[in-house]
Amino acid sequence: MSAQNTILFALLWPLLGAVGIALAGRWPNLRETVTLVTASVLALSVWSLAPGIMDGGRPGVVVAEVFGGLSIAFSVEPLGMLFAALASTLWIVNSVYSIGYMRGNNEKHQTRFYVCFAIAIAAALGVAFADNLLTLFLCYEILTLSTYPLVSHKGDAATIRSARIYLGILLGTSIGLLLPAIIWTYTVAGTLTFTPGGILEGNLAGPAVGLLLGLYVFGIGKAAVMPVHKWLPSAMVAPTPVSALLHAVAVVKAGVFTVTKVIIYIFGVEALFAEPSGGWLVYAAAFTIIAASVVALRQQNLKRMLAYSTIGQLSYVIMAAAVLTPLSEVGAAVHIVAHAFGKITLFFSAGAIYVASKKTELPQLHGIGRRMPWTMAAFTIAALSMIGVPPTGGFVSKWFILAGAFQTDNYLAIFTIILSTVLNAAYFLPVIFAAWFSTEPAGGKDHGEAPWPAVLALCVTAMATLAFFFFNQPVLELESQLVGRLK
């Protein structure tokens, strides 16, 4: 199969899988088999593109010409290859976890859950492979709409209210800010195609650059830069596999991926670096990192703590991209991977705890490590990665982001990373200590681990968090193509 056909297959296959899942809905075992087969075949097809991209290939395909030289088109470049490989691979693990969680928790509407999940993955791949801003915008909106039924899955009044906040913020920012930014870009550049070095240099200068950058950053609400972040805590009403999708597999990764891609391929790193009006982004990202970490420190609900942790961790990627050095741009891409492995493990662990014990609050976790050793061992590894402790993937990404900040003597970024690391430790380490070394409250529910598919999935992602510390060179080589050779 040619690379062009592989791209089309990867985009259509999850949609065909969604149809198969719907048809098999009356038979749970068959339905989940279709889900796993669809996810596995998708991952293999996406990974088959990697060797060509590593060798410098940039395959693409035009699906339809629209108007004014605009088209619905897809192509694969290093950053998109990384995002697509990550989303497709983690879909397999998330599907295994979902089987244990959804059955163990006796969730309703499981067929709808798996169908919407497949559509969301297809939209995420559309974002990853988008050749231009128009294509990306359409897939970005489909991703928002397809995840709304997942967030509102429980169906009670409180859940619907939170899901509407999720939908309202993401649609409001994309239509009210991102779409005008795209139209403005087209009027001044005459194109929306992602181009190495950017398309705005010579077409836009001065304060207008900073204003357009603001429309993009806050219009891409999935990146959760404050104050466009409240949809993320609101979405915690969703089942834990959905939270994992939102925080690790597709949604927030689509946000920071899009911001990074806009900086590199629309503005251009060198052109944006030369414009003082774009310098505000580092400050916005730094504020989000510290503020979200402080809020996470005050949370008593485990999933809400993880939600605010995600907001802060996402802005590591934004800040790294905004530092505008070769090492920091690579660090932004590497942190997308490291955070995905770590955060999906944390949410898997939170869901496993809920299925096994119905515990959701931090004070309830005292001594739980003795009852759920596999789950809490995975949680511990992932938490250490969020802090940035070796040998975990989080250490690697923080290393590159810090190195990039030192390249330009960006002391704000350096200070932010150091302070946020301390804050991360302040809200994660007490949970770890309480789970392993505190005494379990009297009268607690007698329970063990969650169903084995859920435990298997969280162990796999925890091991990936460790493995990425040692086996990250392919990612570094791939992403260094974005900015030239590492210096």
UniProtKB/TrEMBL annotation:
One GO cellular component term: plasma membrane
Record-linked InterPro entries: CPA3_Na-H_Antiporter_D (IPR050586), ND/Mrp_TM (IPR001750)
Residues spanning the membrane: 34-53, 82-101, 113-129, 135-151, 163-184, 204-225, 245-268, 280-298, 305-324, 336-356, 377-401, 413-438, 450-471
Compartments reported by the entry: Cell membrane; Membrane
Signal peptide, first to last residue: none
Main location: membrane
Keywords of this entry: Cell membrane, Membrane, Transmembrane, Transmembrane helix
Highest taxon above the source species: Bacteria
Keyword set includes Ligase: no
Pfam families: Proton_antipo_M
Membrane topology qualifier: Multi-pass membrane protein
Keyword Secreted: no
Ranges for domain NADH:quinone oxidoreductase/Mrp antiporter transmembrane: 130-423
PANTHER family given in the database record: NA(+)_H(+) ANTIPORTER SUBUNIT D1, NADH DEHYDROGENASE
Protein family (similarity comment): Belongs to the CPA3 antiporters (TC 2.A.63) subunit D family.
Name of the protein described by the UniProt record: Cation:proton antiporter
The species this protein was found in: Parahalioglobus pacificus
